[in-house]
Design goal:
It contains 12 helices and 10 strands. It has a single domain (9-213, 240-286, 329-339), classed as Vaccinia Virus protein VP39 (Rossmann fold, 3-Layer(aba) Sandwich), CATH 3.40.50. The strands form 2 sheets. An 8-stranded mixed beta sheet has the order 1-9-10-8-7-4-5-6, with helices on both faces. Strands 2-3 form a two-stranded antiparallel ribbon. The protein has 355 residues and is α/β, with parallel strands linked by helices. Strand 4 (111-115), helix 5 (121-129) and strand 5 form a beta-alpha-beta unit.
């Protein structure tokens, strides 16, 4: 089914402008809250199954999954980067989600699914914030904690392209972020979004968070890096622009209410933009470094030349005052019956009852 043109409700915010700089955001209670969040970050506990990994000559752990479609390897440093990346986007958005589900989470009994959970940082933080609800994180690579987790959180290894191991209408809220480059356009339309809709209860919400791969006010080397990543996406059949592609794909599924909501934030990159800008440039440079081999090949660059390009990128963002956009797309699954009347047990219930 082809994508169709439609109107969406969009809210735009510039998060580290001169009046909303991070040194202002961190005063008082917000500063206290961020310190607490940062100090309680979940670190990879190293208990994932070893047969899913192989080791490089440098001793770095790399995923050994044949069906992996990521641009780069999953190594210990990348797991730590993903945890820092969570802090970055939590700072940008000042929240973990935008869907109107807070009261449902607080009241208890809600079931939440985090698809592509990575090291489980979002899942665990949400489980700690809403102890009366239950949270499940899934990822094709088992880099999530196997033991150190809240009692209301669990993790499973699963690939959405093979189908999620849950019954229909299981979850009240389904969350997925930063996976737009992991799937082709065909996979998004025919597998990913329909599968997320399938496991969501009628009246429940599905939310995506994505970040643009192109920058505003790019320097020449920054543009070269962006173009190489764009070439990768084009080769995988991933359509652009993200801010219309994702919500249009949701509407094409015909399982959601027509009014797909979009929230947009822009973030400056670099030390010049304060602490948040520093977090952004650190995350981006480490992200570029994590995909050195495929990206250097796409750029026809030697490895040392690619390393130099990353260093130049970090300087260009200061000179050109670079920024990027990030979005949240969320929609409600169409209800044909009362949501409260649905009593189908989830796999969580089944697994808990069997223990």
């Amino acid at each position: 089914m082809g994508l169709k043109q439609s109107k969406h409700i969009t809210t735009t915010t510039l998060v580290n402008s001169s009046k909303d700089r991070p040194d202002v955001l961190l005063k008082g209670e917000r500063r206290k809250k961020f310190r607490s969040f940062r100090s309680s970050g979940i670190l990879f506990d190293g208990t994932s199954t070893l047969e899913n990994w192989r080791f490089s000559h440098g001793g770095k752990r790399i995923h050994n999954l044949k069906n992996a479609k990521l641009l780069g390897p999953i190594i210990d440093e990348e797991v730590e980067r993903l945890q820092r990346q969570h802090r970055l986007f939590k700072r940008i958005w000042q929240s973990n989600y935008s869907s109107p589900v807070e009261e449902r989470l607080k009241s208890g009994g809600a079931r939440i699914l985090d698809v592509g959970c990575g090291p489980g940082t979002w899942t665990i933080e949400m489980a700690e914030s809403y102890p009366k609800s239950t949270f499940t994180g899934v990822d094709f690579a088992p880099i999530f904690p196997q033991e150190k987790r809240p009692v209301n959180a669990k993790f499973l290894q699963a690939n959405i392209l093979d189908g999620l191991p849950f019954l229909d209408d299981t979850f009240d809220f389904v969350h997925m972020r930063l996976l737009v480059t992991a799937f082709s356009a065909k996979e998004w339309e025919e597998k990913v979004i329909p599968e997320l809709a399938r496991v969501t209860r009628q009246g429940g919400w599905v939310e995506f968070m994505e970040s643009d791969i192109q920058y505003f006010n790019e320097g020449p080397v920054t543009q070269r890096l962006s173009n190489a990543l764009m070439a990768f996406m084009k080769g995988k059949g991933i359509l652009q622009p993200i801010d219309s592609y994702v919500p249009n794909s949701m509407e094409s599924c015909e399982k959601f209410e027509k009014e797909i909501k979009i929230e947009e934030k822009s973030c400056f990159v670099g030390k010049w933009a304060g602490e948040l800008g520093q977090l952004a440039v650190d995350d981006i440079t480490k992200g570029w470094a994590a995909v050195k081999l495929p990206m250097s090949t796409m750029m026809s660059a030697k490895l040392n030349e690619y390393d130099d390009a990353i260093q130049i990128f970090a300087k260009e963002v200061e000179q050109y005052k670079t920024s990027f956009k990030t979005w949240r797309f969320f929609g409600q699954k169409i209800s044909t019956t009362s949501s409260s009347a649905i009593t189908t047990p989830s796999s969580w219930d089944q697994s808990e009852q069997s223990q």
